[in-house]
Specification:
Number of helices: 7
Number of strands: 7
Structural class: alpha/beta
Shape: globular
Helix content: 25-40%
Order of helices and strands: EHEHEHEHEEEHHH
């Protein structure tokens, strides 16, 4: 998983609420066994509209999606997160996420930042007025900066540590491999084990 410490990128303002994972990536794109190759499916139905935010040239290359409330509702499909990552997004900001989507995002290296709706709207206005302006997300300082706007955000220490160090859940567990091996070596042979046979 790619580490996330400090990211500076342009904003894609998406003034939509209740964006569900079927809108993020329709089910017909979920045919791969890998975690990559989903960019073509991101917002596939909406991308047929030339006025859709992602089609507008002033937002080409944006890497921070600022969305309305209730982003990522509807299902537990991780493909929605993979499609966002494949499309170059490193962070999504919203006033409220579906819990499963947020969990999937943080497990896969996509930083989700929950800010109050007033700050989300301030970011939308800045991105619409100054589409070339970059926003900086500082995960070490837990801060979002855009022009004269500086706002802190919260993230639980475990997910923050994993993102800062670029560790997925397996990597985070393997950091304790010596302790796991020592524990397994001390267990009676008749008990179940995680050791390779």
């Amino acid at each position: 998983m790619q580490a996330f410490r400090l990211h500076t990128g342009r904003v894609l303002p998406m003034r939509r609420s209740n964006v569900d994972t079927d809108q993020l990536i329709p089910v017909r794109f979920l045919k791969r066994l890998t975690r990559t190759g989903y960019a073509d499916g991101l917002f596939a139905a909406w991308r047929e509209d030339p006025d859709f935010e992602l089609n507008r040239p002033e937002y080409a290359g944006a890497s921070v999606l600022v969305a309305g409330p209730e982003f990522g509702t509807g299902s537990s499909r991780e493909h929605a997160v993979w499609a966002l990552l494949d499309s170059g997004f490193r962070a999504v900001i919203s006033s409220r996420f579906a819990d499963i989507f947020r969990g999937n995002s943080l497990k896969n290296g996509l930083l989700t930042i929950q800010l109050d709706q007033g700050t989300v709207e301030a970011l939308w206005r800045r991105a619409e007025e100054f589409p070339a302006e970059a926003v900086t997300i500082d995960l070490e300082a837990l801060e979002v900066r855009a022009g004269d706007l500086r706002v802190g955000f919260e993230l639980d220490p475990y997910h923050r540590m994993r993102l800062l160090e670029g560790l997925d859940e397996v990597d985070a567990t393997l950091r304790h491999e010596a302790a796991v091996s020592a524990y397994e070596a001390g267990r009676p042979a008749w008990m179940p084990t995680v050791a390779a046979v």
